[in-house]
């Protein structure tokens, strides 16, 4: 581990920096990465954002998005960048398995590993961490890191602010989750002061759907929703064929699970989707129900109490049955 002063001394000279984030980056992952990128370039560093995989089109407008390198498309270049970096910023994840094969590259790299994150149970691969599980988004921690740890609030320009606003907005469900504090709203106010156009960001992220995405949503709600009143649980399941039929792209299944959670009385909502190589689960819960416990115990995953995910190598049908079979174990908590 190194202390903040050592990191500041390192950052006082131009460095080679890699910023990476979790596989299938969401708004917080990309907003945090490009937010930090747009800050660090002002300090004269040589910075690259390396994403382990592709990410949704509704995030591809973020300032300096064309500078992002996707590992699966440019493996050799990504590996060289990671190996040669003086500092590797790891944002919005805390276990190297979340960045797929890039994890081994980061593990063996000689650069200082800085983890900025808000998830539970860090693995401990980092040399410096700015970590707080009470933060609603990693973007909130990036703001704090730039403004308070590095005393550079004046460098939070329109580009930085736009990225960080996107991260905070998406991870907080548009400022509605319990970890949205008065302090977060103060941060958001300063991001708007710095030039973030809140209305435009909402529009670009949320009102940018394809026709297929909307029809897919209608299909899920009409045909694929099951409600288990005896467990206050709602489930939506989507097969590989459904994904192909509606030509669903990366990120377009995001948010579908929230419709299941919007039913009155539902405490747990699950979205199970059959991907090419595995079955992926997204769980959301209301109140104290620990969605992350189910993901951790049964589906090699984890996450936050109210938003968690996991996966399985088993068949789609078996995973659905397994999920249903788990519910009685949690009946008391679900019916409270
Ligand atoms: P989503 O359902 O949007 O994929 O994920 C919701 C949250 O669950 C993410 O923010 C992340 O914290 C967590 N999560 C999703 N998938 C995984 C996983 O495979 N492993 C772990 N540890 N956490 C996950
Ligand atoms: Mn996040």
From TrEMBL:
Q: Which UniProt keywords apply?
A: Hydrolase
Pfam families attached here? DHH, DHHA1
Q: Which InterPro entries match?
A: DDH_dom, DHH_sf, DHHA1_dom, Oligoribo/pAp-PDE_c-di-AMP_PDE
DHHA1 domain span: 245-327
Q: Which GO terms describe its molecular function?
A: 3'(2'),5'-bisphosphate nucleotidase activity
Q: Which Gene3D superfamilies match?
A: 3.10.310.30, inorganic pyrophosphatase (n-terminal core) (3.90.1640.10)
SUPFAM superfamilies, per database record: DHH phosphoesterases (SSF64182)
Top enzyme class of this protein?
A: hydrolase
Kindly indicate whether the keyword Hydrolase belongs to this entry. yes
Which segments constitute the DDH domain?
16-168
The source's superkingdom equals: Bacteria
Q: What EC identifiers does the entry list?
A: 3.1.3.7
Q: What is this protein called in UniProt?
A: Bifunctional oligoribonuclease/PAP phosphatase NrnA
Organism, as annotated: Pedobacter alpinus
């Amino acid at each position: 581990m190194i202390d903040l002063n050592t990191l500041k001394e390192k950052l006082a000279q131009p460095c080679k920096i890699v910023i990476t984030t979790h596989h299938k980056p969401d708004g917080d992952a990309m907003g945090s990465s490009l937010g930090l990128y747009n800050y660090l370039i002002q300090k004269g560093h040589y910075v690259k954002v390396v994403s382990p995989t592709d990410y949704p089109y509704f995030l591809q407008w973020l300032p300096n998005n064309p500078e992002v390198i996707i590992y699966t498309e440019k493996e050799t270049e990504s590996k060289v960048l990671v190996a040669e970096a003086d500092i590797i910023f790891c944002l919005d994840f805390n276990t190297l398995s979340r960045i797929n094969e890039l994890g081994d590259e980061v593990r063996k790299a000689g650069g200082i590993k800085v983890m900025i994150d808000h998830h539970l149970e860090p693995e401990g691969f980092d040399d410096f961490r700015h970590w707080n599980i009470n933060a609603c988004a990693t973007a909130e921690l990036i703001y704090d890191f730039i403004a308070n740890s590095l005393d550079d609030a004046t460098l939070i320009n329109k580009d930085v602010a736009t990225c960080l606003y996107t991260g905070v907005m998406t991870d907080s469900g548009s400022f509605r989750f319990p970890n949205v504090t008065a302090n977060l709203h103060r941060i958001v106010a300063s991001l708007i002061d710095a030039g973030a156009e809140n209305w435009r960001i909402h529009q670009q992220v949320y009102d940018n759907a394809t026709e297929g995405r909307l029809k897919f949503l209608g299909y899920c709600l009409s045909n694929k929703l099951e409600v288990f009143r005896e467990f206050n649980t709602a489930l939506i399941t989507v097969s590989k064929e459904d994904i192909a039929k509606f030509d669903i792209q990366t990120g377009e299944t995001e948010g579908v699970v929230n419709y299941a959670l919007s039913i009155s009385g539902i405490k747990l909502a699950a979205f199970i989707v059959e991907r090419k190589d595995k079955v992926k689960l997204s769980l959301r819960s209301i109140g104290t129900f620990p969605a992350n416990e189910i993901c951790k115990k049964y589906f090699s995953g984890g996450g936050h109490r109210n938003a968690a995910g996991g996966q399985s190598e088993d068949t789609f049908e078996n995973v659905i049955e397994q999920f249903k079979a788990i519910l009685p174990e949690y009946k008391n908590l679900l019916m409270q």
